[in-house]
Design brief:
Layout: E1 4-15, E2 18-29, E3 33-37, H1 44-51, E4 59-64, E5 67-68, H2 73-77, E6 80-83, H3 95-105, H4 112-120, H5 134-147, E7 152-156, H6 164-179, E8 183-188, H7 191-197, E9 200-205, E10 208-213, H8 215-218, E11 224-230, E12 243-249, E13 252-257, H9 262-269, E14 274-280, H10 284-292
Parallel strand pairs: 3-8, 3-9, 6-7, 7-8
Antiparallel strand pairs: 1-2, 1-4, 4-5, 9-10, 11-13, 11-14, 12-13
Helix pairs in contact: 3-5, 4-5
Length: about 300
């Protein structure tokens, strides 16, 4: 049986009159990477800080393995590893000293895994933190987090400042956590990162989760991408319901079509000397833009 590690239920948060979190509800299970997807200002960081007890909600519940995370903050923090998007370190300590300090604060030891992570992320642990770039500061926090053995790992825009190689190293470590049956909450606006690591994706807009599901579940939202090889002019298909972005270059015809419009369009294509037909589901980027285009909100 898969256990519920983190449960968030009907979480509401206000800043003055501004309703910044609106009835947020979701669950993260063991061995699951749950991604919060949204642009800057969507409420991702506010949600994470509320889950951690750093902000007080107006109402709602947060439980970590059945324990109240909003009232038993010290106890639950011992079972969480957290990396914020902007990492601030003690300037006069070395990177290695800070890693060890962060581990001790959480009740964890410096192990061979810590050394392997330092090597993997190419961090010089002997340098003072004041000499580190943003990316190196981020590495310190990530190494400490991945070294810890906890129930829940929370990453808030964790690869900001990392080069592409180190971003890939981050992804591989997240997948290793998943394989070890750990729970991960990943907040990101980097679509490729989410697509490669997440089991469940929650799209958050203006403090409200407007859709949750696996990538294949969300693909019904955006249009399908169609490539057809035809022998005749098929540009009149652009007038059919659900068809957008149609272009024809010789025999090569490309367009997007809604799921509702697909049956009629495929039937019509046969009239244009159809030789080949390929359809691909929408990417996560296309799904994301469907929700944010023109400020529209889709009903669940």
């Amino acid at each position: 049986m898969v256990n519920n590690v983190l449960q968030v239920k009907n979480l509401d948060k206000f800043f003055g009159r501004f309703h910044v979190l609106k009835q947020v509800t979701f669950t993260i299970h063991q061995g699951e990477v749950f991604a919060l997807l949204g642009p800057n200002g969507a409420g991702k960081s506010t949600l994470i800080r509320t889950i951690l007890g750093l902000l007080k909600p107006k109402s709602g519940q947060v439980t970590l393995n059945g324990q109240n995370a909003l009232t038993e903050i010290v106890a639950t923090h011992q079972r969480i590893a957290y990396v914020p998007g902007d990492v601030y370190l003690w300037p006069n300590l070395t990177g290695g000293e800070i890693i060890d300090l962060l581990l001790r604060i959480g009740g964890h030891d410096h192990t061979a895994k810590t050394d392997a992570l330092i090597k993997k992320f190419a961090l010089d642990p002997t340098k003072k933190a004041r000499t580190y770039s943003k990316g190196n500061r981020q590495k310190v926090a990530l190494i400490a987090a991945f070294s810890a053995d906890v129930d829940l790992y929370i990453f808030d825009e964790p690869t900001s400042g990392l080069d592409p190689l180190q971003a890939l190293n981050f992804q591989s470590e997240v997948l290793a956590l998943k394989a070890a049956n750990k729970a991960v909450l990943l907040s990101s606006h980097i679509l490729d990162e989410v697509e490669k690591t997440a089991d469940q994706i929650a799209i958050i807009r203006q403090g409200e989760i407007i859709e949750t599901g696996e990538l294949q579940d969300l693909q019904h939202i955006a249009n399908l991408n169609v490539l057809a090889i035809v022998t005749e002019d098929a540009t009149e298909l652009a007038a059919m319901p659900g068809v957008t972005n149609l272009t024809q270059n010789g025999q090569r015809l490309t367009f997007t079509v809604s799921h509702a419009g697909l049956p009629a369009v495929t039937k019509q294509l046969a009239q244009y000397g159809l030789k080949d037909l390929r359809m691909t589901p929408p990417t996560l980027e296309e799904i994301f833009l469907t929700y944010y285009k023109d400020g529209a909100v889709h009903e669940k």
